[in-house]
Amino acid sequence: MNENIIEVSNLKKKFPGVQALKGINLNIPEGMITGIVGPNGSGKSTLLKIISGLIIKDEGQVNINRKNKQRHLMQDIAFLPEINHLYRWMRISEMVKFHEDQFSDFSTKKAEELLDFMNLKLEQKIDNLSKGMVARLKLILVLSRSTKILILDEPLAGIDPASRERILESLIGEFDSANQSIILATHEIIEAERFLDHVIFMEAGEILLDGNADDLRAEKGKSIRELIGEVFE
Amino acid sequence: MRSLISLIKNEFKQLNILIIVSTLIIAVWEWFLITRTEHWPPGLSFGLGFIPLFFLPLIMIFLAYNSYRSEWGNNTIYLLKILPRKGYEINLAKFIPAFSYYLFLSLLLIAANLYFNQELIARILTEIPDMTGRQFSRQFFILSYSAYLITGIQLYLITQFSYIIASFYNRFRLLISIIVFILSHYLILRVGGFFNYLFNWLPDFPVTVFMESPAGVTESTIYIGSAPFVVIMLIMTGLFFLNSRLIASDVDV
Protein backbone atom coordinates (compact mmCIF):
# COMPACT_ATOMS: atom_id res chain seq x y z
CA MET A 1 0.00 0.00 0.00
CA ASN A 2 1.54 3.31 -1.12
CA GLU A 3 1.69 6.22 1.29
CA ASN A 4 -0.11 9.40 0.36
CA ILE A 5 1.94 12.20 -1.18
CA ILE A 6 -1.02 14.61 -1.07
CA GLU A 7 -3.83 14.64 1.45
CA VAL A 8 -6.76 16.98 0.99
CA SER A 9 -9.49 17.40 3.55
CA ASN A 10 -12.69 19.45 3.44
CA LEU A 11 -11.30 21.71 0.72
CA LYS A 12 -13.60 24.56 -0.27
CA LYS A 13 -13.20 27.36 -2.77
CA LYS A 14 -15.74 29.87 -3.95
CA PHE A 15 -15.46 32.23 -6.90
CA PRO A 16 -17.99 35.00 -7.48
CA GLY A 17 -21.26 33.22 -8.25
CA VAL A 18 -19.92 29.68 -8.12
CA GLN A 19 -18.79 27.22 -5.48
CA ALA A 20 -15.84 25.67 -7.34
CA LEU A 21 -14.95 23.11 -4.67
CA LYS A 22 -17.51 21.85 -2.15
CA GLY A 23 -15.56 20.32 0.69
CA ILE A 24 -13.35 17.85 -1.13
CA ASN A 25 -11.58 15.00 0.65
CA LEU A 26 -9.04 12.94 -1.24
CA ASN A 27 -5.69 11.19 -0.94
CA ILE A 28 -3.22 10.93 -3.78
CA PRO A 29 -0.90 7.96 -3.47
CA GLU A 30 2.85 8.28 -3.81
CA GLY A 31 4.65 6.81 -6.83
CA MET A 32 1.56 6.60 -9.03
CA ILE A 33 0.00 8.38 -11.96
CA THR A 34 -3.28 9.80 -10.75
CA GLY A 35 -5.81 11.03 -13.30
CA ILE A 36 -8.42 13.61 -12.38
CA VAL A 37 -11.22 13.46 -14.93
CA GLY A 38 -14.41 15.44 -15.27
CA PRO A 39 -16.26 17.85 -17.52
CA ASN A 40 -15.41 21.54 -17.87
CA GLY A 41 -16.17 23.46 -14.70
CA SER A 42 -15.93 20.40 -12.50
CA GLY A 43 -13.19 21.99 -10.36
CA LYS A 44 -10.19 20.00 -11.60
CA SER A 45 -8.03 23.03 -12.40
CA THR A 46 -9.04 24.81 -9.20
CA LEU A 47 -8.03 21.75 -7.19
CA LEU A 48 -4.67 21.51 -8.95
CA LYS A 49 -4.02 25.24 -8.60
CA ILE A 50 -4.72 25.11 -4.87
CA ILE A 51 -2.39 22.13 -4.47
CA SER A 52 0.26 24.04 -6.44
CA GLY A 53 -0.17 27.18 -4.33
CA LEU A 54 -1.43 29.34 -7.21
CA ILE A 55 -4.73 30.16 -5.58
CA ILE A 56 -5.79 30.44 -1.99
CA LYS A 57 -8.26 28.00 -0.49
CA ASP A 58 -11.25 29.28 1.47
CA GLU A 59 -11.40 26.35 3.87
CA GLY A 60 -9.83 22.96 4.45
CA GLN A 61 -6.38 21.53 4.56
CA VAL A 62 -3.85 20.43 1.97
CA ASN A 63 -0.87 18.40 3.12
CA ILE A 64 1.86 17.91 0.58
CA ASN A 65 4.50 15.35 1.33
CA ARG A 66 3.09 15.31 4.89
CA LYS A 67 3.70 19.05 5.35
CA ASN A 68 1.27 21.94 5.40
CA LYS A 69 3.45 24.90 4.39
CA GLN A 70 2.58 25.71 0.82
CA ARG A 71 5.17 28.25 -0.32
CA HIS A 72 8.16 26.37 1.04
CA LEU A 73 7.17 23.33 -0.97
CA MET A 74 7.28 24.88 -4.44
CA GLN A 75 10.67 23.25 -4.93
CA ASP A 76 8.94 19.85 -4.62
CA ILE A 77 6.22 20.57 -7.19
CA ALA A 78 6.49 20.97 -10.94
CA PHE A 79 3.27 22.48 -12.24
CA LEU A 80 2.19 22.57 -15.86
CA PRO A 81 -0.75 24.91 -16.44
CA GLU A 82 -3.22 24.44 -19.24
CA ILE A 83 -2.44 27.79 -20.87
CA ASN A 84 0.83 28.94 -22.44
CA HIS A 85 2.64 30.50 -19.49
CA LEU A 86 6.04 30.91 -21.16
CA TYR A 87 7.64 34.21 -22.20
CA ARG A 88 6.81 34.40 -25.90
CA TRP A 89 9.68 36.74 -26.74
CA MET A 90 12.23 34.17 -25.58
CA ARG A 91 13.88 31.51 -27.66
CA ILE A 92 13.68 27.92 -26.40
CA SER A 93 17.36 28.11 -25.40
CA GLU A 94 16.64 31.20 -23.24
CA MET A 95 13.67 29.50 -21.60
CA VAL A 96 15.78 26.43 -20.83
CA LYS A 97 18.48 28.68 -19.34
CA PHE A 98 15.85 30.55 -17.31
CA HIS A 99 14.60 27.24 -15.86
CA GLU A 100 18.16 26.13 -15.17
CA ASP A 101 18.75 29.34 -13.21
CA GLN A 102 15.48 29.13 -11.30
CA PHE A 103 15.20 25.44 -10.41
CA SER A 104 18.09 23.71 -8.70
CA ASP A 105 16.72 20.32 -9.80
CA PHE A 106 16.51 21.24 -13.50
CA SER A 107 18.69 19.21 -15.88
CA THR A 108 19.66 21.03 -19.08
CA LYS A 109 21.05 17.78 -20.50
CA LYS A 110 17.73 16.05 -20.01
CA ALA A 111 15.90 19.03 -21.53
CA GLU A 112 18.11 18.88 -24.63
CA GLU A 113 17.53 15.16 -25.02
CA LEU A 114 13.77 15.64 -24.72
CA LEU A 115 13.83 18.58 -27.15
CA ASP A 116 15.54 16.33 -29.65
CA PHE A 117 13.00 13.55 -29.07
CA MET A 118 10.09 15.99 -29.44
CA ASN A 119 11.52 17.57 -32.61
CA LEU A 120 12.09 21.02 -31.14
CA LYS A 121 15.14 23.18 -31.75
CA LEU A 122 16.89 25.39 -29.18
CA GLU A 123 17.01 28.38 -31.51
CA GLN A 124 13.24 28.41 -32.17
CA LYS A 125 11.36 31.42 -30.85
CA ILE A 126 8.46 30.52 -28.55
CA ASP A 127 6.16 33.01 -30.27
CA ASN A 128 6.57 31.11 -33.54
CA LEU A 129 5.70 27.70 -32.11
CA SER A 130 2.40 25.98 -32.86
CA LYS A 131 0.06 25.03 -30.02
CA GLY A 132 1.28 21.43 -30.14
CA MET A 133 4.91 22.53 -30.03
CA VAL A 134 4.25 24.81 -27.04
CA ALA A 135 2.52 21.91 -25.26
CA ARG A 136 5.55 19.71 -25.91
CA LEU A 137 7.95 22.43 -24.72
CA LYS A 138 5.97 22.99 -21.51
CA LEU A 139 6.08 19.28 -20.80
CA ILE A 140 9.81 19.10 -21.51
CA LEU A 141 10.47 21.90 -19.03
CA VAL A 142 8.45 20.09 -16.37
CA LEU A 143 9.95 16.65 -17.08
CA SER A 144 13.49 18.04 -16.96
CA ARG A 145 13.08 18.67 -13.28
CA SER A 146 13.54 15.90 -10.76
CA THR A 147 10.71 16.86 -8.43
CA LYS A 148 8.67 14.55 -6.29
CA ILE A 149 5.35 15.76 -7.64
CA LEU A 150 4.38 16.58 -11.22
CA ILE A 151 1.05 18.33 -11.60
CA LEU A 152 -0.18 18.52 -15.16
CA ASP A 153 -3.32 20.45 -15.99
CA GLU A 154 -4.74 19.27 -19.32
CA PRO A 155 -1.37 18.58 -20.97
CA LEU A 156 -3.10 17.10 -24.02
CA ALA A 157 -5.83 19.69 -24.57
CA GLY A 158 -6.04 20.91 -28.16
CA ILE A 159 -3.05 18.89 -29.28
CA ASP A 160 -2.99 16.87 -32.50
CA PRO A 161 -3.01 13.05 -32.09
CA ALA A 162 0.63 12.61 -33.18
CA SER A 163 1.85 15.14 -30.62
CA ARG A 164 -0.38 13.61 -27.94
CA GLU A 165 1.23 10.24 -28.49
CA ARG A 166 4.72 11.76 -28.21
CA ILE A 167 3.78 13.67 -25.08
CA LEU A 168 2.42 10.56 -23.40
CA GLU A 169 5.41 8.51 -24.49
CA SER A 170 7.82 11.00 -22.90
CA LEU A 171 5.67 11.30 -19.82
CA ILE A 172 5.69 7.58 -19.21
CA GLY A 173 9.26 7.15 -20.38
CA GLU A 174 10.54 9.74 -17.90
CA PHE A 175 8.31 8.75 -15.00
CA ASP A 176 10.28 7.46 -12.05
CA SER A 177 7.72 5.75 -9.81
CA ALA A 178 10.25 5.25 -7.03
CA ASN A 179 10.70 8.98 -6.57
CA GLN A 180 7.86 10.71 -8.33
CA SER A 181 4.10 11.02 -8.41
CA ILE A 182 2.10 12.46 -11.29
CA ILE A 183 -1.28 14.13 -11.01
CA LEU A 184 -2.91 14.65 -14.35
CA ALA A 185 -6.15 16.44 -15.13
CA THR A 186 -7.40 15.47 -18.56
CA HIS A 187 -10.32 15.16 -20.93
CA GLU A 188 -8.35 12.91 -23.27
CA ILE A 189 -9.11 9.77 -21.37
CA ILE A 190 -8.88 7.45 -24.40
CA GLU A 191 -5.13 7.99 -24.71
CA ALA A 192 -4.41 8.49 -21.03
CA GLU A 193 -6.40 5.56 -19.61
CA ARG A 194 -3.74 2.94 -20.11
CA PHE A 195 -1.24 4.91 -18.02
CA LEU A 196 -3.42 5.80 -15.05
CA ASP A 197 -2.88 3.95 -11.76
CA HIS A 198 -5.41 5.93 -9.77
CA VAL A 199 -8.52 7.76 -11.00
CA ILE A 200 -10.61 10.54 -9.47
CA PHE A 201 -13.92 11.50 -11.09
CA MET A 202 -15.05 15.07 -10.41
CA GLU A 203 -18.19 16.99 -11.23
CA ALA A 204 -19.50 20.37 -10.02
CA GLY A 205 -16.86 20.69 -7.33
CA GLU A 206 -17.41 17.25 -5.86
CA ILE A 207 -15.75 13.86 -6.14
CA LEU A 208 -18.05 11.25 -7.62
CA LEU A 209 -15.70 8.29 -7.62
CA ASP A 210 -12.14 7.78 -6.44
CA GLY A 211 -10.03 4.65 -6.52
CA ASN A 212 -7.27 2.49 -7.91
CA ALA A 213 -7.75 2.16 -11.70
CA ASP A 214 -7.27 -1.62 -11.74
CA ASP A 215 -9.60 -2.12 -8.77
CA LEU A 216 -12.27 0.03 -10.40
CA ARG A 217 -11.98 -1.88 -13.67
CA ALA A 218 -12.18 -5.22 -11.86
CA GLU A 219 -15.00 -4.14 -9.56
CA LYS A 220 -17.18 -2.54 -12.22
CA GLY A 221 -16.14 -4.80 -15.11
CA LYS A 222 -15.65 -1.78 -17.36
CA SER A 223 -12.85 0.31 -18.77
CA ILE A 224 -12.22 3.75 -17.24
CA ARG A 225 -13.60 5.33 -20.40
CA GLU A 226 -16.84 3.37 -20.06
CA LEU A 227 -16.98 4.17 -16.39
CA ILE A 228 -16.69 7.89 -17.16
CA GLY A 229 -19.66 7.62 -19.49
CA GLU A 230 -21.63 5.88 -16.75
CA VAL A 231 -20.60 8.18 -13.89
CA PHE A 232 -21.33 11.39 -15.76
CA GLU A 233 -24.64 10.28 -17.23
CA MET B 1 21.67 34.83 -6.14
CA ARG B 2 21.90 33.36 -9.65
CA SER B 3 18.13 33.01 -9.75
CA LEU B 4 17.63 36.65 -8.73
CA ILE B 5 20.13 37.87 -11.33
CA SER B 6 18.36 35.76 -13.95
CA LEU B 7 15.01 37.35 -13.03
CA ILE B 8 16.53 40.85 -13.16
CA LYS B 9 18.12 40.17 -16.56
CA ASN B 10 14.77 38.92 -17.76
CA GLU B 11 13.10 42.19 -16.72
CA PHE B 12 15.86 44.31 -18.25
CA LYS B 13 15.37 42.51 -21.56
CA GLN B 14 11.71 43.45 -21.48
CA LEU B 15 12.63 47.11 -20.86
CA ASN B 16 15.21 47.24 -23.66
CA ILE B 17 12.99 48.90 -26.23
CA LEU B 18 11.66 51.47 -23.77
CA ILE B 19 15.19 52.39 -22.67
CA ILE B 20 16.43 52.76 -26.26
CA VAL B 21 13.40 54.78 -27.39
CA SER B 22 13.47 57.08 -24.33
CA THR B 23 17.22 57.68 -24.69
CA LEU B 24 16.76 58.54 -28.36
CA ILE B 25 13.88 60.94 -27.64
CA ILE B 26 15.94 62.69 -24.96
CA ALA B 27 18.96 62.86 -27.26
CA VAL B 28 16.87 64.37 -30.06
CA TRP B 29 15.30 66.89 -27.66
CA GLU B 30 18.69 67.96 -26.28
CA TRP B 31 20.12 68.20 -29.78
CA PHE B 32 17.19 70.37 -30.86
CA LEU B 33 17.73 72.70 -27.90
CA ILE B 34 21.44 72.98 -28.64
CA THR B 35 20.62 74.14 -32.16
CA ARG B 36 18.32 76.84 -30.70
CA THR B 37 20.77 78.20 -28.08
CA GLU B 38 22.02 80.97 -30.38
CA HIS B 39 18.52 82.04 -31.38
CA TRP B 40 16.56 81.92 -28.14
CA PRO B 41 16.95 84.14 -25.06
CA PRO B 42 19.81 83.04 -22.75
CA GLY B 43 18.79 80.26 -20.39
CA LEU B 44 15.64 79.21 -22.23
CA SER B 45 17.26 76.18 -23.87
CA PHE B 46 18.90 75.31 -20.56
CA GLY B 47 15.56 75.42 -18.72
CA LEU B 48 13.65 73.51 -21.37
CA GLY B 49 16.36 70.85 -21.33
CA PHE B 50 15.04 69.66 -17.96
CA ILE B 51 11.46 69.14 -19.19
CA PRO B 52 11.88 65.35 -19.75
CA LEU B 53 12.56 65.07 -16.00
CA PHE B 54 8.83 65.68 -15.49
CA PHE B 55 7.94 62.80 -17.78
CA LEU B 56 10.15 60.20 -16.13
CA PRO B 57 7.90 59.89 -13.03
CA LEU B 58 4.99 59.31 -15.41
CA ILE B 59 6.97 56.52 -17.07
CA MET B 60 7.58 55.07 -13.60
CA ILE B 61 3.80 55.00 -13.09
CA PHE B 62 3.41 53.24 -16.43
CA LEU B 63 6.15 50.72 -15.59
CA ALA B 64 4.67 50.00 -12.18
CA TYR B 65 1.14 49.55 -13.52
CA ASN B 66 2.43 47.21 -16.19
CA SER B 67 4.85 45.34 -13.95
CA TYR B 68 2.26 42.70 -13.07
CA ARG B 69 -0.48 43.61 -15.54
CA SER B 70 1.66 42.39 -18.43
CA GLU B 71 2.35 39.15 -16.53
CA TRP B 72 -1.37 38.60 -16.12
CA GLY B 73 -2.06 39.55 -19.72
CA ASN B 74 0.51 37.08 -21.06
CA ASN B 75 -0.29 34.38 -18.47
CA THR B 76 3.36 34.48 -17.39
CA ILE B 77 2.15 35.21 -13.86
CA TYR B 78 1.82 31.40 -13.62
CA LEU B 79 5.52 31.08 -14.32
CA LEU B 80 6.41 33.66 -11.67
CA LYS B 81 4.12 32.10 -9.07
CA ILE B 82 5.47 28.57 -9.53
CA LEU B 83 9.06 29.66 -9.10
CA PRO B 84 10.49 28.60 -5.76
CA ARG B 85 11.32 32.24 -5.02
CA LYS B 86 10.17 34.49 -2.21
CA GLY B 87 7.83 37.36 -3.04
CA TYR B 88 10.43 40.04 -2.32
CA GLU B 89 12.85 38.45 -4.80
CA ILE B 90 10.26 38.56 -7.57
CA ASN B 91 9.32 42.13 -6.68
CA LEU B 92 12.94 43.22 -6.39
CA ALA B 93 13.59 41.82 -9.85
CA LYS B 94 10.79 44.07 -11.11
CA PHE B 95 11.89 47.13 -9.14
CA ILE B 96 15.64 47.17 -9.84
CA PRO B 97 15.37 47.53 -13.66
CA ALA B 98 12.64 50.18 -13.37
CA PHE B 99 14.61 52.20 -10.82
CA SER B 100 17.85 51.79 -12.79
CA TYR B 101 16.03 53.11 -15.84
CA TYR B 102 14.79 56.13 -13.84
CA LEU B 103 18.21 56.76 -12.34
CA PHE B 104 20.11 56.29 -15.61
CA LEU B 105 17.87 58.49 -17.74
CA SER B 106 17.54 61.29 -15.18
CA LEU B 107 21.31 61.41 -14.62
CA LEU B 108 21.93 61.25 -18.35
CA LEU B 109 19.55 64.12 -18.91
CA ILE B 110 21.03 66.30 -16.18
CA ALA B 111 24.60 65.55 -17.25
CA ALA B 112 23.82 66.26 -20.91
CA ASN B 113 22.09 69.51 -20.04
CA LEU B 114 24.94 70.69 -17.82
CA TYR B 115 27.55 69.66 -20.37
CA PHE B 116 25.96 71.45 -23.30
CA ASN B 117 25.29 74.61 -21.30
CA GLN B 118 28.69 74.98 -19.63
CA GLU B 119 29.17 78.50 -20.94
CA LEU B 120 25.88 79.71 -19.57
CA ILE B 121 26.48 78.08 -16.18
CA ALA B 122 29.96 79.59 -15.96
CA ARG B 123 28.52 83.02 -16.77
CA ILE B 124 25.84 82.68 -14.08
CA LEU B 125 28.42 81.61 -11.51
CA THR B 126 30.60 84.64 -12.25
CA GLU B 127 27.66 87.00 -11.97
CA ILE B 128 26.77 85.95 -8.44
CA PRO B 129 29.17 86.25 -5.50
CA ASP B 130 31.89 83.67 -4.95
CA MET B 131 30.29 82.39 -1.79
CA THR B 132 27.31 81.07 -3.76
CA GLY B 133 29.66 78.82 -5.69
CA ARG B 134 30.16 75.07 -5.65
CA GLN B 135 29.17 74.28 -2.06
CA PHE B 136 25.72 75.81 -2.47
CA SER B 137 25.22 74.15 -5.85
CA ARG B 138 26.19 70.73 -4.53
CA GLN B 139 23.86 70.92 -1.50
CA PHE B 140 21.00 72.11 -3.64
CA PHE B 141 21.59 69.45 -6.27
CA ILE B 142 21.89 66.55 -3.80
CA LEU B 143 18.73 67.48 -1.90
CA SER B 144 16.66 68.12 -5.00
CA TYR B 145 17.84 64.99 -6.73
CA SER B 146 17.23 62.84 -3.61
CA ALA B 147 13.68 64.21 -3.43
CA TYR B 148 13.26 63.46 -7.15
CA LEU B 149 14.45 59.86 -6.73
CA ILE B 150 12.19 59.33 -3.72
CA THR B 151 9.24 60.68 -5.72
CA GLY B 152 9.95 58.16 -8.47
CA ILE B 153 10.21 55.26 -6.00
CA GLN B 154 7.04 56.38 -4.22
CA LEU B 155 5.03 56.65 -7.44
CA TYR B 156 6.27 53.25 -8.59
CA LEU B 157 5.42 51.41 -5.37
CA ILE B 158 2.04 53.08 -4.86
CA THR B 159 1.01 52.39 -8.46
CA GLN B 160 2.11 48.79 -8.14
CA PHE B 161 0.19 48.46 -4.88
CA SER B 162 -2.90 49.97 -6.54
CA TYR B 163 -2.78 47.47 -9.39
CA ILE B 164 -2.28 44.51 -7.05
CA ILE B 165 -5.27 45.58 -4.94
CA ALA B 166 -7.34 46.01 -8.13
CA SER B 167 -6.37 42.51 -9.26
CA PHE B 168 -8.39 41.10 -6.36
CA TYR B 169 -11.46 42.25 -8.30
CA ASN B 170 -12.70 40.96 -11.62
CA ARG B 171 -14.22 44.23 -12.84
CA PHE B 172 -13.40 47.96 -12.90
CA ARG B 173 -9.71 47.31 -12.29
CA LEU B 174 -8.52 50.62 -13.73
CA LEU B 175 -11.04 52.59 -11.68
CA ILE B 176 -10.14 50.70 -8.50
CA SER B 177 -6.45 51.29 -9.21
CA ILE B 178 -7.01 55.03 -9.55
CA ILE B 179 -9.03 55.20 -6.33
CA VAL B 180 -6.47 53.16 -4.39
CA PHE B 181 -3.68 55.30 -5.88
CA ILE B 182 -5.29 58.52 -4.64
CA LEU B 183 -6.24 57.12 -1.23
CA SER B 184 -2.77 55.64 -0.74
CA HIS B 185 -1.18 59.05 -1.20
CA TYR B 186 -3.51 60.54 1.37
CA LEU B 187 -2.91 57.67 3.78
CA ILE B 188 0.85 57.89 3.40
CA LEU B 189 0.69 61.61 4.09
CA ARG B 190 -1.27 61.01 7.32
CA VAL B 191 0.81 58.04 8.47
CA GLY B 192 3.99 59.87 7.47
CA GLY B 193 2.90 62.89 9.48
CA PHE B 194 2.40 60.73 12.54
CA PHE B 195 5.71 58.89 12.20
CA ASN B 196 7.47 62.16 11.58
CA TYR B 197 6.99 63.05 15.26
CA LEU B 198 8.67 59.81 16.28
CA PHE B 199 11.77 60.66 14.28
CA ASN B 200 12.08 64.30 15.32
CA TRP B 201 15.23 63.50 17.24
CA LEU B 202 17.14 62.86 14.00
CA PRO B 203 19.68 65.57 13.02
CA ASP B 204 18.61 68.18 10.45
CA PHE B 205 20.29 68.98 7.14
CA PRO B 206 21.88 72.46 7.21
CA VAL B 207 21.27 74.24 3.92
CA THR B 208 22.87 77.54 2.98
CA VAL B 209 20.53 80.00 1.30
CA PHE B 210 21.20 83.36 -0.25
CA MET B 211 18.86 86.27 -0.47
CA GLU B 212 19.29 89.14 -2.82
CA SER B 213 18.11 92.56 -1.74
CA PRO B 214 18.98 96.16 -2.64
CA ALA B 215 21.47 96.00 0.22
CA GLY B 216 23.26 93.13 -1.42
CA VAL B 217 23.33 89.37 -1.09
CA THR B 218 22.99 87.96 2.42
CA GLU B 219 23.82 84.43 3.46
CA SER B 220 21.90 82.41 6.01
CA THR B 221 21.52 78.78 6.98
CA ILE B 222 18.19 77.00 7.20
CA TYR B 223 17.64 73.50 8.56
CA ILE B 224 15.61 70.86 6.76
CA GLY B 225 14.51 67.98 8.94
CA SER B 226 15.87 64.56 7.95
CA ALA B 227 12.87 62.82 9.60
CA PRO B 228 10.55 63.14 6.54
CA PHE B 229 13.20 61.48 4.35
CA VAL B 230 13.68 58.65 6.82
CA VAL B 231 9.93 58.18 7.33
CA ILE B 232 9.12 58.10 3.64
CA MET B 233 11.90 55.57 3.01
CA LEU B 234 10.58 53.39 5.85
CA ILE B 235 7.03 53.59 4.49
CA MET B 236 8.26 52.75 0.99
CA THR B 237 10.22 49.78 2.31
CA GLY B 238 7.07 48.56 4.08
CA LEU B 239 5.03 49.04 0.91
CA PHE B 240 7.60 47.12 -1.11
CA PHE B 241 7.36 44.12 1.23
CA LEU B 242 3.56 44.41 1.33
CA ASN B 243 3.41 44.27 -2.48
CA SER B 244 5.76 41.30 -2.47
CA ARG B 245 3.67 39.46 0.08
CA LEU B 246 0.42 40.15 -1.78
CA ILE B 247 1.83 38.85 -5.06
CA ALA B 248 3.42 35.76 -3.58
CA SER B 249 0.73 34.63 -1.20
CA ASP B 250 -2.57 36.42 -1.53
CA VAL B 251 -3.41 37.05 -5.18
CA ASP B 252 -5.08 34.24 -7.13
CA VAL B 253 -4.17 33.56 -10.75
Automatic annotation (TrEMBL), chain A:
UniProt keyword annotations, A-Z: ATP-binding, Nucleotide-binding, Transport
SMART domains named in the record: AAA
PROSITE patterns per the UniProt record, alphabetical: ABC_TRANSPORTER_2 (PS50893)
KW Transport (keyword) present: yes
SUPFAM superfamilies assigned to the protein according to its UniProt record, in alphabetical order: P-loop containing nucleoside triphosphate hydrolases (SSF52540)
An example Gene Ontology molecular-function term: ATP binding
UniProt xrefs under InterPro entries: AAA+_ATPase, ABC_transporter-like_ATP-bd, ABC_Transporter_VariousFunc, P-loop_NTPase
A Pfam family that the UniProt record links to this protein: ABC_tran
Domain named ABC transporter: residues: 6-229
CDD domains given in the database record: ABC_DR_subfamily_A
Protein name: ABC-2 type transport system ATP-binding protein
Source organism of this protein record: Halanaerobium saccharolyticum
TrEMBL record, chain B:
Bilayer-spanning residue ranges: 12-32, 44-65, 95-116, 136-157, 178-202, 222-242
Keywords (A to Z) from UniProt: Membrane, Transmembrane, Transmembrane helix
Protein name in UniProt: ABC-2 family transporter
